[in-house]
Specification:
Layout lengths: L1 E5 L3 H12 L3 E5 L2 H10 L1 E5 L4 E3 L3 E3 L8 E6 L6 H7 L4 E9 L6 H6 L8 E6 L2 E5 L2 E4 L5 E6 L5 H13 L3 E4 L3 H22 L3 H6 L1 H20 L8 H10 L8 H7 L10 H11 L4 H18 L1
Parallel strand pairs: 1-2, 1-6, 2-5, 3-10, 6-7, 11-12
Antiparallel strand pairs: 3-4, 8-11, 9-10
Helix pairs in contact: 6-8, 6-9, 6-10, 6-12, 8-9, 8-11, 11-12
Length: 307
């Protein structure tokens, strides 16, 4: 089975590394000094579960060099999803599956604008990881997990094949009965903490510990749930209290990847988190005052980063 990883950052680098370590034929789509380092010395994974170094079947920034794939993991940032989907169209054969793992609530929908629904499954991942240096991925925190599931008519047998592949690579995984609910539950957490974390420069522990900031977190989550309800996403009734409990139990010094991008002056997923809530709220007639405040306060910095 040939697996293609598009985007070799904290997510794609870690899961790609685990798949290579298990003996899978893996192509990494990387660029710049990161690509050069992997070509020269392999991909090095530093992990709380043990460090290892692997060499992919191919690492390239030229997608035209890549042969058709059985499974494609899209691990770019959410604003890059459409571009990535266009790049990999020629890699798709009859039974290819495409699994987007970005943060955000509408990544699969973006892929479906470009790739036929018989190839696309929905997914998300839970992981704390980052590029520490060119060719080096640092995984820190808890055991990573991939959750995925059918969006349309893909058979359970094909999903089980993917699960077996992840099992072989010792990647914790789960097939969701309702992948849209799972995606929105992850989105509820990451969108709640990312923007406010970027605005305050505070860790998750500080955000939760401060009564006023905790209240803003809760109001952000309430607005996201209201938008989800208007979109007929069947989030559980206790979703707000559940996500607040998740935030409470995160490592005190933890920060979200989007927050770190904002703090370090890089383009972030602000548009796909708080910005998405503002636009969907306007479209559906759902007020989103806290998300709007966070979004518009951070926009000048986002524009500067993208310039």
């Amino acid at each position: 089975m040939h697996i293609v990883i598009v985007g070799v950052g904290g997510v794609g680098g870690f899961f790609g590394g685990k798949l290579i370590q298990s003996g899978c034929k893996v192509t990494l789509i990387a660029r710049g000094v990161h690509k050069k380092a992997i070509l020269a010395q392999g991909l090095h994974i530093k992990s709380v579960d043990g460090d290892f170094n692997v060499h992919p079947h191919l690492v390239t920034d030229d997608v035209s060099r890549v042969e058709p794939a059985d499974l494609i993991l899209l691990c770019t940032k959410s604003w890059q999803v459409k571009q990535a989907a266009n790049q990999i169209k020629h890699l798709i054969k009859e039974n290819t599956l495409v699994l987007p793992l970005q943060n955000g609530a509408d990544n699969a929908e973006k892929v479906l604008e470009i790739i036929d629904k018989k190839h696309v499954i929905g997914g998300l991942c839970k992981i704390y990881s980052k590029i520490e240096a060119p060719g080096i991925i640092n995984h820190f925190g808890f055991v990573p997990e991939i959750i995925f599931g059918a969006l349309h008519t893909i058979s359970n047998d094909r999903l089980e094949e993917v699960s077996t592949l992840f099992d072989k690579a010792k990647i914790k995984n789960k097939i969701a009965k309702d992948i849209q609910v799972a995606i929105w539950q992850k989105f509820l957490f990451i969108a709640t903490v990312s923007g406010l974390g970027g605005l305050t420069r505070a860790t998750l522990g500080v955000l939760y510990e401060d009564k006023n900031l905790r209240d803003l977190l809760e109001r952000t989550a309430q607005e996201i749930c209201a938008v989800a309800q208007a979109k007929h996403i069947n989030l559980p009734e206790d979703s707000v209290s559940a996500v607040m409990n998740i935030i409470k139990n995160q490592p005190y010094d933890a920060t979200a990847s989007t927050q770190r991008d904002i703090m370090e002056g890089r383009p972030s997923e602000l548009e796909n988190f708080n910005g998405f809530m503002v636009r969907e709220g306007e479209r559906l007639g759902v007020p989103t005052p806290v998300n709007s405040f966070i979004y518009y306060c951070l926009m000048p910095m986002e524009k500067k980063a993208r310039a």
